[in-house]
Amino acid sequence: MPHRYKIKRPAQAVIIILLLAAVWLAGLYDFTRTIFRDAAAATSANALQTGEELRADDKLQAIVALTGGSNRLQTGFDLLEQGRGEKLFISGVYQGVDVRELMAQWKGSDHADLDCCVVLGFEADDTIGNARETAEWMEKEGYTSLYLVTAHYHMKRALLEFQRVGKTWQIRPWPVVPEGLDMNNWWRDSRYRSLIIREYNKYLAALVMPPLNRKKA
Question: pLDDT digits over 3-32, tens only?
Fold first, then answer.
């Protein structure tokens, strides 16, 4: 009877670790390919040509911008100025910051006439908090549709959390690419490599862990 070769436990552990690493790397590749593809597609689809007017389906009720990265607030103000939403809700603002200070920070006096339509949320300090804070505001306003503005690498997780609290909402993502990020060579820059890998791990955790059993993240 032929002798069966038995893999020792240390070798089994190594094989399992290598398989898990391969799965993780494949997922990271798909994650990065998706966020860059979606960002490029959204930029192309959402861009207005000179003199072009918004279509009816481009006008939603709200614009929600999540703080924490470059160009997010600027983009939120621009969408409001274009008439894509009735109000802009900025989630995750530090206490003591008012609308005019934000406008002064991002565009000087260009948006001085928009402070009537900008609402600040001060309670959220993470993505789960952003979703919950926005849900409270949306319910108060009676809104069911929104543009979601956040960094492209953060969009998948933000959409996941927002869809959990607003199951009937119409959500249109508006991903923003941070300044200085080369979408083709992100892995060469240690800052962005660390940022995107960390976000990928957070997204995986958000996928597998029920919202009520998770700490904020």
Answer: 555 566 677 777 788 888 888 889 888 998
For domain 37-43+56-213, the CATH class is: alpha beta
Cα(63)–Cα(85) distance, rounded to whole angstroms? Answer: 6
Strand 87-91 and strand 145-151: the pairing is unpaired
CB 178 within 8 A of CB 70: yes
- What are 166-192's pLDDT values in tens digits? 999 999 999 998 777 776 777 787 888
Position 12 scores a pLDDT of 72
Give pairs for 142-145: CB < 8 Å, separation 24+.
Answer: 143/61, 143/62, 143/86, 144/61, 144/168, 144/169, 144/170, 145/60, 145/61, 145/62, 145/169, 145/170, 145/171, 145/172
Residue spans of the domains in the chain: they are: 37-43+56-213
State the Cα–Cα distance between residues 79 and 92, nearest whole angstrom. 19
Encode pLDDT of 95-129 as tens digits.
677 776 776 766 565 655 666 899 999 999 899 99
